[in-house]
């Protein structure tokens, strides 16, 4: 066995070791140079009036592809830079040229501005120190970011000096650890107005009187110096608002004079409103429309405290209109049956019966108002018909409607209220005619039933009244709801006041039994419709169980009539209760499984290839690309939505435009609760659906269509929002 040894001469060994040292030194130098060049901030660019740079909220690129950045300014001696809307003059900071690897785009977010005057012009911007938050969308998190961009800005004091400088920032690949600038960036991100950044704020009303925009605003905390900034696609000049505060400083009226470009204002125009008040701020999208009543010397005559006679009239007529909406058709038929039964009765009984129904309606609206106040105090976004987003409420409504239906068929009668009233009136002397009151309870329940079926409906006047009510304080909510209830109760009150009008009705006879059967069929169809709503809120297995429980309950009631067994009625009640529990079974699942079920349901709904799923952040992308976009917020429980869908959205102009890809459609399904859709509605200060908006290159903030659509309104909105062809 031989062992072979290799030897290096001392000269070669020294040369080898020296070369290794040189290579290691070079690598160490390059490595340290790389760290020296890679920093979470660019170098300061200094001028005689300001210094500025780009800062990063992270030390390096981690797993995220969105990098938090900021454009930091220090301005000297009263110098200002401009907001995204500069006002009467100037232009905002922007990057006019960007030569960067691994960069897809940069998004700007603008903190709340201040108002300043320069040479008599109103301008909006920032002074002293400000950081404008940026978000850099990178192509890959596996490559470094070498940002090189040219900043263009305008700094003003007595004179204005343009800025055009190159800024450089390098971020290597790493863990995405927060940098020393992360806190200051977060602070300035919190200064960016959103639709929910001032929870105590409410825009009660906004309208145009001549060439003056009037904004009525409320806050649970006192106003100090409220101000508002307008942004619109039109070349309208907006003056500085004149502010009038209430005695408690929790209400304010802002009057803003406008100067239209051609001396006249269009019927309505969309605008983005940014309200600020000493550290508080909010951004809302609003449609400015002319007021219904023109300003006159007698304006105060038409006002009662904070609620104008116009709103009172709108609320009352909105309640009246609910009587004629499709979703209230079964209630109208029940009213007709009540009228037919009342023919030939004593006028006193007729009056009391219809008055009881009216009281039932008004009391129900009062309860709805109280619930709305309580939910709003708890921070819940309250809307008209929101209870139909809950599977439990839909199931209970379905069971009650079926109960009314089988009662009309004669399978059983509602005896509990009568017995209860009998027991309560046993000690009452005969002269009080206690036998009347059990009958009145049934009329009262009819009024409650009418209110329940009316809540999924909306109409133009209803939407206006609800916007005023739900956007106000407790007093406004209660008053407006009571007035709407009074409008819905008008037919009952009319017959109660003039029972002789029943003389025109045909005499009672065999036709009444046929009418009862017809009404029962209508109510069954309504119950089936509610089951279709429920099918969009729970899984198929749960839906089948609910239907099984309800069917067995109905069978038990039928058998109870045949066998005359009260035990079967008790069993039917237990089965109905089982249906209610089953409809809410998903709430007992763990949070993760609940979200999976919700995703599965939403996936099933998106079966129309012409409509895209609603993502608010995608709207601006489509519009910036020159597209016209329609956003339709609807729900399966909203009958008015279904009417719009059938007449104008699934057919005709919109359907043709979607098929030809001239129009991009986004469907926001609000059948079940959805925070994104709720926030979207809140940004427009809306509290009910249907809600349809048209966006386009000429209407980036959107044009809101009326609740009841028309072909002319759709055509005009698309034309106003799109580029001329």
Q: Which consecutive residue ranges, at least 5 long each, have pLDDT under 50?
A: 1-9, 27-37, 292-305, 415-434, 601-607
Which descriptor suits the 3D outline? elongated
What structural class should be given to the helix and strand makeup?
Answer: alpha+beta
Beta percentage is 15-25%
Discrete helix count: 20
Q: What percentage of residues falls in helices of 4 or more residues?
A: 40-55%
Spatial strand sequence of the major β-sheet: 1-2-3-9-6
> End-to-end distance, in Å?
95 Å
Main sheet record: 5 strands, antiparallel
Beta strands, count: 26
Q: What's the alpha carbon Rg, rounded to whole Å?
A: 34 Å
The averaged pLDDT comes out at 78
Quick description:
This protein has 725 residues and is α+β, with helices and mostly antiparallel strands. The chain contains 20 helices and 26 strands.
Task: Explain what this protein looks like in three dimensions.
With 725 residues, the protein is an alpha+beta fold. Helices cover 42% and strands 24% of the residues. It has 20 helices and 26 strands. The strands form 7 sheets. The protein has a 5-stranded antiparallel beta sheet. Strands 12, 13, 15, 16 and 17 form a 5-stranded antiparallel beta sheet that branches. Strands 22-24-23-25-26 form a 5-stranded mixed beta sheet, with helices on both faces. α3 packs across α10, α4 (329-342) packs antiparallel against α8 (436-454) and α6 packs antiparallel against α12. It is elongated, with a radius of gyration of 34 Å. The N and C termini lie far apart (95 Å). Mean pLDDT is 78; it is low at 1-9, 27-37, 292-305, 415-434 and 601-607.
